[in-house]
C-alpha cells in the first residue's frame, strides 16, 4: 500500500530548511506541485502546529506533517523529505527533525495500511541509513517496494 501512494517525484533528499515552517513548506511542495494537496492544506498544517504545538513530530527526528482532509487533501499520498541539516520543531523529546513524511489523506481510513507500513520502516535502522546516504529517490522507492 505505501508504494501505491508514494511516487519518485514525491521524494526529496538533503533539502535545506531554515526552520520548521520552512521545512514543512519545502517538504510538502512536491505534493502541491503534483496536486495531491492544495496550498491551503499546507497552511493548515502550519496553523495547527502554531496553535497546538508540534503534534506532527511523532518520534525521534521524524515529523508527519498532515492536516484534516477538508482543508485540501485531493488524493491520498505521501512524500518523503530529508533535511541536509536537522531543524527544531519545538518537541523537546524528539527534536531536531531530519525526516519528514508528508501525508495527504482524503478520508480517515484509506491510508491506515500505508501508515502501518511506514511505522515498520521507522523501526528499521537500515531505512534511515539509506535515507542518510542515498542521493536517489528511485533507490528509496525501490527499497520501500520490498517491504
UniProtKB/TrEMBL annotation:
Pfam family for this entry, one: PTS_EIIA_2
Domain PTS EIIA type-2: 4-147
Keyword Cytoplasm: yes
UniProt xrefs under CDD domains: PTS_IIA_fru (cd00211)
Superkingdom of source: Bacteria
InterPro entries reported for this sequence: Ascorbate-PTS_EIIA_comp, PTrfase/Anion_transptr, PTS_EIIA_type-2_dom
UniProt keyword terms in alphabetical order: Cytoplasm, Kinase, Phosphoprotein, Phosphotransferase system, Sugar transport, Transferase, Transport
Gene Ontology CC terms, in alphabetical order: cytoplasm
Cell compartment(s), UniProt: Cytoplasm
Main location: cytoplasm
Keyword Kinase on entry: yes
One annotated GO molecular function: kinase activity
GO process annotations (BP): phosphoenolpyruvate-dependent sugar phosphotransferase system
Biological role stated in the UniProt entry: The phosphoenolpyruvate-dependent sugar phosphotransferase system (sugar PTS), a major carbohydrate active transport system, catalyzes the phosphorylation of incoming sugar substrates concomitantly with their translocation across the cell membrane. The enzyme II UlaABC PTS system is involved in ascorbate transport.
Listed name of the protein: Ascorbate-specific PTS system EIIA component
